[in-house]
Amino acid sequence: MNKQSFFILSSLRKIRENSQPLGYLRTKPVEKTNIGPYLDRIKGLLKSDKQEHKKQYYTAKKILEILQSEGFTGGCRHDIPDCSVPI
Fold first, then answer.
1. Does 44 have pLDDT greater than 70?
2. What pLDDT, on the 0 to 100 scale, is given for residue 69?
3. Domain map of the chain by residue range?
4. Are 76 and 64 in contact (CB under 8 A)?
5. How far from 48 is each of 40, 54, 57, CA to CA, in Å?
6. How far is 75 from 85, CA to CA, in rounded Å?
7. What is the 3-state secondary structure (H, E, C) of 2-54?
8. pTM
């Protein structure tokens, strides 16, 4: 038995013996320090969209502009093709 197959078999044994996935599990959720104060505002904008016609929905870009006018200093990542506000 070579070294690589030993590690594969030992990994499979660990997976079989544990019902929970192995690895790091967070004990508490990550704080959203930059966008945290604006989450209620975003939820309000998205809730108001449900009452409007589909063509009148806020786009991610428009929501970002609204938040920036209210003091939000974050932005979208331009290396991602679809610019969206992370929630």
1. yes
2. 92
3. 32-87
4. yes
5. 12, 11, 9
6. 7
7. CHHHHHHHHHHHHHHHCCCCCCCCCCCCCCCCCCHHHHHHHHHHHHHHCCCCH
8. 0.53
